[in-house]
């Protein structure tokens, strides 16, 4: 499968030259030294998270749930976390199902973000009272009892449970390593979470079979959750925004942001986490191609929706275009268009850049910022409509409200909630080894060195 040296730009990664003992040594070094260095950023992130909680209490909560616009940046933080941290584990599932070997050091960088799901779930519960019932307004729920509150909460709770189950089960073998070889402070929690894992043949067979199924279950829940969020948080709150494409746009662009978050996480691990032997050009190149593909999909779904409004030209459609793109939120839309589609295309279309480590990393950072601007634009537009503008099955905007300008409280909320997600990841990283020993060593057992003329080949098999 792989050749030694360079061929057509392919470079054999050092991972395949290592012995299983080398991988275990890297993981133990992470647990003993690198994990300890995470204490300071963890404390800083935790402090920012507490400030964000205080800001929620001091600003939107003090104004009450009737004033939905005061909750705009709580909604923006919620939608952004759902579009990034909640999307990253879905990437891991896709790579597992494809059974590619280059993904083995990548999985943990994406799966670890599942531990942050509790924050968007709590934010969702806080936002629920700001929504009116669906009896007298257009909604995807068609007047179901207790909609949208009950059914949306059930979906979010199911997704959160599936995410934590996926993150835990995929880490079982490595948690057992921490239990047996970690620092005393790390062993107690790892022993409880590893649940008697001894690495028997039967346990491995169950692990290989179940971990993929849990990941697929997570993806199957994630897609309808994002569809419902697109409807409840955006479409249903903007009178006259009749579109069947937006939920697909919202979900696809979330996958794009999930890939971007994984690439940035990999870059951080490579630069400051001692993972250069495991996260090389092969991983960044492969994910860079996926990021380019999803950037093109961003444009495809945006254009599919836009062209209908553009040619329709009814007063209702013209108001929607003016409100979301060409007047009220013109600059956020331009930045979103540039950072989610134009710049990724113009940068990643060049092979040398796409084949590098820095190129995909820079584009991923741009996409993450572009997605944040897009979610702020959408939340600001949707949460500017009072309840009376929605009732009576309103079919058009009665008036185009001015753009929502954030205050200091809004910024503290946004930064605090994102810092809270980061704090959970940093805390978890102190108990999980990098790289994933089970994944990387599992690939090394499938490797064989073979002579070929005057060179040496490394052949890597696939189990199926």
UniProtKB/TrEMBL annotation:
- TM segments? 41-59, 71-91, 112-129, 149-169, 215-242, 248-269, 290-311, 331-350, 362-383, 403-427
UniProt keywords, alphabetically: Membrane, Transmembrane, Transmembrane helix
UniProt xrefs under PANTHER family: PTHR43044, QUINOL:CYTOCHROME C OXIDOREDUCTASE QUINONE-BINDING SUBUNIT 2 (PTHR43044:SF1)
> How is this protein named in the record?
Putative membrane protein
Native source species: Thermomicrobium roseum (strain ATCC 27502 / DSM 5159 / P-2)
């Amino acid at each position: 499968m792989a050749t030694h040296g360079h061929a057509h730009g392919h470079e054999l990664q050092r991972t395949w030259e290592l012995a299983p003992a080398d991988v275990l040594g890297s993981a133990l070094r992470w647990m003993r030294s690198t994990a300890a260095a995470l204490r300071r950023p963890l404390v800083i992130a935790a402090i920012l998270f507490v400030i964000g909680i205080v800001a929620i209490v001091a600003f939107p909560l003090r104004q009450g749930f009737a004033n939905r616009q005061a909750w705009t940046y709580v909604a923006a933080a919620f939608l952004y976390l759902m579009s990034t941290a909640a999307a990253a584990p879905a990437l891991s599932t896709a790579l597992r199902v494809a059974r590619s070997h280059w993904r083995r050091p990548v999985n943990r960088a994406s799966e670890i973000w599942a531990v942050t799901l509790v924050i968007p779930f709590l934010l969702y519960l806080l936002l629920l009272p700001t929504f009116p019932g669906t009896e007298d307004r257009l909604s995807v729920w068609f007047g179901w009892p207790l909609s949208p509150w009950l059914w949306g909460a059930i979906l979010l709770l199911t997704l959160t449970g599936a995410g934590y189950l996926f993150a835990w089960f995929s880490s079982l073998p490595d948690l057992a390593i921490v239990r047996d070889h970690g620092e005393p402070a790390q062993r107690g929690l790892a022993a409880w979470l590893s649940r008697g894992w001894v690495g028997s043949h039967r346990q491995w067979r169950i692990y290989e079979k179940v971990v993929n199924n849990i990941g697929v279950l997570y993806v199957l829940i994630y897609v309808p959750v994002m569809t419902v969020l697109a409807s409840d948080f955006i479409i249903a709150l903007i009178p006259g925004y009749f579109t069947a494409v937006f939920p697909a746009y919202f979900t696809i662009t979330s996958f794009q942001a999930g890939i971007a978050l994984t690439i940035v996480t990999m870059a951080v691990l490579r630069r400051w986490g001692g993972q250069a032997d495991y996260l090389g050009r092969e991983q960044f190149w492969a994910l860079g191609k996926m990021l380019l593909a999803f950037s093109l999909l961003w444009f495809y779904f945006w254009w599919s929706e836009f062209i209908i409004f553009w040619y329709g030209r009814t007063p209702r459609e013209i108001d929607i275009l003016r409100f979301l793109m060409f007047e009220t939120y013109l600059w956020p839309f331009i930045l979103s268009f540039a950072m989610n589609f134009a710049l990724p295309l113009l940068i990643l279309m060049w092979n040398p850049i796409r084949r590098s480590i820095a190129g995909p990393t820079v584009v991923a950072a741009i996409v993450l910022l572009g997605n944040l601007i897009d979610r702020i634009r959408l939340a600001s537009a949707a949460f500017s409509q009072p309840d009376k503008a929605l009732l009576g099955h309103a079919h058009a905007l009665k008036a185009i409200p001015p753009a929502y300008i954030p205050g200091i409280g809004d910024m503290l909320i946004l930064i605090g909630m994102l810092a809270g997600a980061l704090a959970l990841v940093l805390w978890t990283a102190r108990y999980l080894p990098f790289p994933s020993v089970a994944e990387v060593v599992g690939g090394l057992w499938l490797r064989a060195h073979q002579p070929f003329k005057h060179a040496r080949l490394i052949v890597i098999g696939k189990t199926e």
